[in-house]
Design a protein that fits this description.
Layout: H1 2-17, E1 24-39, E2 45-47, E3 51-65, E4 68-88, E5 91-110, E6 113-114, E7 117-132, E8 134-137, E9 140-143, E10 145-146, E11 149-150, H2 152-157, E12 161-162, E13 165-176, E14 181-190, E15 197-198, E16 207-220
Parallel strand pairs: 10-12, 11-15
Antiparallel strand pairs: 1-2, 1-3, 1-16, 3-4, 4-5, 5-7, 5-8, 6-7, 7-13, 8-9, 13-14, 14-16
C-alpha cells in the first residue's frame, strides 16, 4: 500500500511538472473479463472460461510529439478464471479463481483529432503485483497466496499459490469526447508465468498466464 501511495504521489507531482506542456491526469474505472491459459504439466494446452471483475485507476498523459503521448499510470485490476476442470499443482478443480493486482501500465497513445474529440490508439507494457482474493472450488474456499517457490507441504494446505508478479503487453482503442470524458476498450496479454516452482523445479511443462479485456470510462483533467 505504501508503494502505491508513493507511486500515486509521484504521478501527481509529474503532472504538475509538465502542466505548461498540457500534461493531463485521468481517472478511470471499468468492467473486466479475464482468463488463465497456457500449458499443463504434460504439455497439453488449455484455455479456461472468463471471470468478470472491475478495475480502478489513474494515469498521467505527457505529450512527447504531435498527437503522441506517453501515458504511465497505476491501477487496481481484478483477474481470474472460471473452470469445470482446472489442472493445477497436481490437482484438478471445479469452480473459479479470483486474483487482484496493483499494476503499473505504461502506454504510448496516438490521439489525432476526430470529430469534436480525439481518437485513442495505444500500446505498451504493464507490471503488476498480486494482492490477494480467493478461489472457490469443490474442495472448499481458499485465500490466494503468492510466492515464487513453494513446497509440497504448502500446496497440501493451500493449493492456490501464484507468483507475486505478472507482466505483459497492453493495447487500447477508444475515444475522448470534447468534454474530456473518455471511453476505451483495453486488452492485456500476460507474458509471465504465474504458477510458482515447486522446491526450485518447474512442474513439468506447466506454464500458466493471464489474458483479458476491459471496457473503461474515465475523465481527464
Amino acid at each position: 500500500m505504501k508503494r502505491t501511495i508513493t507511486l500515486v504521489s509521484f504521478l501527481v507531482v509529474l503532472s504538475g511538472a509538465f502542466a505548461q506542456k498540457k500534461t493531463t491526469i485521468g481517472f478511470h474505472g471499468g468492467y473486466t473479463l479475464y482468463t488463465i491459459h497456457g500449458r499443463n504439466a504434460d504439455g497439453s494446452n488449455f484455455w479456461l472460461k472468463t471471470e468478470d471483475g472491475f478495475n480502478l485507476g489513474m494515469n498521467v498523459e505527457v505529450p512527447i510529439a504531435k498527437d503522441v503521448y506517453l501515458q504511465p499510470g497505476v491501477q487496481y485490476n481484478q483477474k481470474g478464471a472460471n473452470f469445470k476442470s482446472y489442472h493445477y499443482m497436481g490437482q484438478t478443480f471445479h469452480g473459479d479463481v479470483k486474483l487482484s493486482y496493483i499494476e503499473v501500465p505504461v502506454n504510448v497513445v496516438y490521439k489525432p483529432s476526430l470529430g469534436s474529440g480525439h481518437l485513442l490508439v495505444g500500446a505498451g507494457a504493464f507490471a503488476g503485483f498480486g494482492t490477494g482474493r480467493e478461489a472457490g472450488v469443490d474442495q472448499g474456499m481458499y485465500h490466494i497466496r503468492f510466492a515464487e517457490d513453494v513446497t509440497p507441504q504448502q500446496i497440501e494446505q493451500v493449493p492456490f499459490y501464484f507468483r507475486p508478479w505478472d507482466a505483459g503487453a497492453n493495447f487500447l482503442l477508444g475515444y475522448q469526447f470534447a468534454n474530456n470524458i473518455y471511453t476505451e476498450f483495453d486488452g492485456q496479454i500476460g507474458m509471465k508465468r504465474i504458477n510458482p516452482s515447486i522446491n526450485g523445479q518447474w512442474d513439468g511443462k506447466m506454464k500458466h498466464r493471464t489474458t483479458g479485456i476491459a471496457y473503461t470510462i474515465g475523465y481527464r483533467f
